[in-house]
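Dear U.,

For the methods section draft, I wanted the exact inputs and outputs in one place so we can describe them consistently. I've listed the two proteins in the order they'll appear in the manuscript figures. Please don't edit the token lines directly; just add comments below if something needs changing.

First protein:
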Amino acid sequence: MPNWTSIAKLNLQYAHRFLNFEGEAQYLHGHTGTLTIEVEGDVDGKTGFVYPCNSIKRIAWDYLKNFDHALIMQEEDSLLPAILKVYEDQGIKDGAPTNTMKGLPIDTALAKAYPECRLVVVKKVATCENLIEVFYDLLKDHLNIKKLTFTSGDNAASASYK
């Protein structure tokens, strides 16, 4: 009997930087990231799916849209107060009419989202590995996750569960 997995992918555009890093990644820069979510289970005889991929995407996107076209900053980043001041001075800190990409509230031990200003503040540097940890924490109670893979530019990491 095979072990079945449904696989869905979501693309994210985001900017970040690595604190205490020597090299180009210490500067604010952007990426296209792809999160691959593998959900395991038995094939449903009625639908033919382990889990419908569109449902995986819908559930995940409710949270992850906070990370799309967003700035991901570590909470101790000295740029964070300056960015929030600029957003306030521009009148966009509390949201703009064109900001329609607001996800579900996120305020966990690993990350807090400020959807009104397209900002996510994380506890750890926003590497592929640490972002997988954040994504798993957000999705683990909603999906039977077997594996997460996050690719950011030429870099990638994956984690298997169970």
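Second protein (the one for the lower panel):
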Amino acid sequence: MEELLSLRGEAPEFQLRADSCACSHFDWSRGDSVPYTPEERAGFADELTEKTERIFELGQSVSKAFVEIGYLLLEINNKNLIRFVCIKSQTFLDMGDYGFKVFGFQKSTTYNLMNIVKKFGDGEGGLSFAYKDYSYTQLVYLLPFTGYELKMFTPVATVAEIKELRAGLKKYPLHEWRSSDFGKKITWRSELERVRKAAAEEAVAEKKDKKEERKQGLLAMLSSAEASESEISLPSPQTEVADVSAEELTEVASDSPGEKLIEVRKTLGLKNKEERKKWVEGVFEDASPYLTIPELDLKIYRYVFVNGARLFRFNGVTYWDTWSTEPGREGKIAKYFITDSKCPKFDMCHARSVNQVVDWLTEHGKEI
């Protein structure tokens, strides 16, 4: 549309081409190509000049005259006039070439103008009654729609809404409609709502799939790290353990998941809920991560109780505030997980929050 609004100038001087004797045009009434006679060809340069001058004239008020411009271009195209003329020996390859060299139109603009009058014109120089209130830009974006799809639109549909629906229908096609449905239930608004809802549901499903995929990846990494440790024999304790019971000896994580250390750790002896909560919140303070995943900006810490149960803390788990069409704020959170004899698998483990860990500590207070 910007190209049309800036259209200024006058028609160039066209000359009849000397090699145009074999040119013909398509006769729609006969459905065949018909060669022009020498008498007919003699006036083509003047006819093209006249139509070109009119297009320049219409360019002064193109917002209302684009339909007539489209008809003139279509007449030039249907009569194949550009095949018979040249400008200082410079010929035109096609209508797109003519539109660009003479008016500065992009190829798409020239063909959009012609296609609008082909599809929406009344055949008498104007638009069909159903489309007379649409703008040029609206009609351009309505061009790809089929006849039965066009019936759901009204001139109040904005260009943005038409574009959105056009893109949405490529992914979520229209239902099969009966003619009786039009004007009752099926409208461009109802279809836009349908594709928006379908897109939102797919976005939620994709986020859940990604979340599950990430979870499974983390589980696999943890399982691999745990399996690697189980294959490594424990080094000799560096602490005198003769007077210490076996249940007080436990493995502790080093900076590398592939190594183990032995230390003497006595039962926690936590007496009440306040002590347990304080212990959970401070147990990993200044500790080295058990496992680090740089790609996810994730650090995993582990504490091994004397009864063999393990407490994991994930630092940096990303989450979304909302599961809507637009994602909410992305943040970071700490989550806790406990594996024990009842829940040996990480993907079936206990706890998620500090309070849930405290509840587990209360239940197993005598064992740890």
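Candidate sentences for the figure legend, describing the second protein: Residues 2-143 form one domain. Strands lie at 15-16, 24-27, 32-35, 85-86, 249-253, 260-264, 291-293, 298-304, 310-320, 330-339.

Thanks,
Y.
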